[in-house]
Design a protein that fits this description.
By secondary structure, this protein is mainly α. Helix content is 64%, strand content 0%. The longest helix has 32 residues.
C-alpha cells in the first residue's frame, strides 16, 4: 500500500487519529510491561536470582523504553499528517485483537490499561 492508496480512501478513519491512537496503545503496552517487570522484580527479591536473569530483565526494560519513545513519536507525527488522509478499513480489520480493532476504528481512547488486576509470576 502506498501513500497514494491511503489518500484514495474516502470512508476510513483519518490517519492522524489512527497514529495518535497508535501512540496511546504503545504507551499502554509499555505500562503493562512495566507492571510485569515490577512483578518479576518483586518475585526475585524473595528468591535467588538465577544466572542471566538480570540481563533478561534488562531486555524487558529496553522494550519498555522503545515503546515509551515510539508512543510520543507516533502522536507527534500524527500532528504533522494531512487531516484528509484516511486509513482503509481493511488495514484495521487485519488486527488480531478485538479491543485494538475497536479503538483503531474510532472508538474512544482508553484511559486504563487493557487488563487490570495483579500479575502473578510462577
Amino acid at each position: 500500500m502506498t501513500r497514494h492508496d491511503l489518500q484514495l480512501v474516502n470512508d476510513g478513519p483519518r490517519l492522524p487519529e489512527i497514529m495518535d491512537v497508535f501512540g496511546h496503545e504503545l504507551q499502554h503496552a509499555a505500562e503493562l510491561l512495566r507492571r510485569y517487570e515490577k512483578a518479576v522484580l518483586e518475585r526475585q527479591v524473595s528468591q535467588p536470582v538465577r544466572q542471566g536473569g538480570a540481563s533478561e530483565l534488562q531486555l524487558v526494560d529496553l522494550v519498555i523504553q522503545i515503546l515509551e519513545d515510539m508512543a510520543p513519536f507516533s502522536q507527534d507525527l500524527a500532528k504533522l499528517m494531512p487531516e484528509e488522509t484516511r486509513v482503509p478499513e481493511s488495514l484495521i480489520d487485519r488486527l488480531r485483537l478485538d479491543q485494538l480493532r475497536a479503538v483503531m476504528g474510532g472508538a474512544e481512547v482508553r484511559d486504563a490499561p487493557h487488563s487490570g488486576g495483579h500479575i502473578d509470576v510462577f
